[in-house]
């Protein structure tokens, strides 16, 4: 007996039974959950407020961002991660932590984001970029 028709017949029988379909769905969702939450190599970010899919944490800032950031730093930690649209941002609200970051990790945090508009307007020459790394 061929294996193909046997598998096809058992698949048809499986689809008729709602319990088996539900079991397969639960197993599939469990696998996706385990794969998503326990994979290695996931970067560890500081605590962050809940975020929305496209705008990230922008809704948390409100009309007075300085007060909102102060309230968020009290609720989470003096160092927190905010996803501001497409710009992932680390906010430091403690003077001691800011001093430590500026003193020891100044090269890592001193970059500026490149925009498509600047690349298009200046033909990727970065004439107006003033980070001190490129000389014109």
UniProtKB/TrEMBL annotation:
<keyword id="KW-0472">Membrane</keyword>
<keyword id="KW-0479">Metal-binding</keyword>
<dbReference type="GO" id="GO:0004497">
    <property type="term" value="F:monooxygenase activity"/>
</dbReference>
<feature type="transmembrane region" description="Helical">
    <location>
        <begin position="17"/>
        <end position="35"/>
    </location>
</feature>
<keyword id="KW-0408">Iron</keyword>
<protein>
    <recommendedName>
        <fullName>Cytochrome P450</fullName>
    </recommendedName>
</protein>
<dbReference type="InterPro" id="IPR001128">
    <property type="entry name" value="Cyt_P450"/>
</dbReference>
<dbReference type="InterPro" id="IPR002401">
    <property type="entry name" value="Cyt_P450_E_grp-I"/>
</dbReference>
<dbReference type="GO" id="GO:0020037">
    <property type="term" value="F:heme binding"/>
</dbReference>
<dbReference type="InterPro" id="IPR036396">
    <property type="entry name" value="Cyt_P450_sf"/>
</dbReference>
<keyword id="KW-1133">Transmembrane helix</keyword>
<dbReference type="Pfam" id="PF00067">
    <property type="entry name" value="p450"/>
</dbReference>
<comment type="similarity">
    <text>Belongs to the cytochrome P450 family.</text>
</comment>
<dbReference type="GO" id="GO:0016705">
    <property type="term" value="F:oxidoreductase activity, acting on paired donors, with incorporation or reduction of molecular oxygen"/>
</dbReference>
<keyword id="KW-0812">Transmembrane</keyword>
<dbReference type="GO" id="GO:0005506">
    <property type="term" value="F:iron ion binding"/>
</dbReference>
């Amino acid at each position: 007996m061929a294996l193909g028709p046997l598998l096809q017949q058992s698949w048809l029988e499986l689809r008729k039974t709602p319990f088996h379909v539900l079991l397969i769905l639960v197993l599939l969702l469990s696998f996706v959950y385990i794969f998503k939450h326990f994979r290695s190599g996931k970067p560890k970010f500081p605590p962050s407020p809940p975020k929305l899919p496209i705008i990230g944490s922008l809704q948390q800032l409100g009309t007075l961002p300085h007060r909102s950031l102060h309230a968020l730093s009290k609720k989470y930690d003096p160092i927190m991660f905010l996803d501001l649209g497409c710009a992932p941002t680390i906010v430091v609200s403690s003077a001691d932590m800011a001093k430590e970051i500026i003193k020891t990790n100044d090269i890592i945090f001193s970059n500026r984001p490149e925009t498509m508009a600047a690349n298009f307007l200046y033909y990727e020459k970065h004439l107006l970029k003033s980070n001190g790394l490129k000389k014109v």
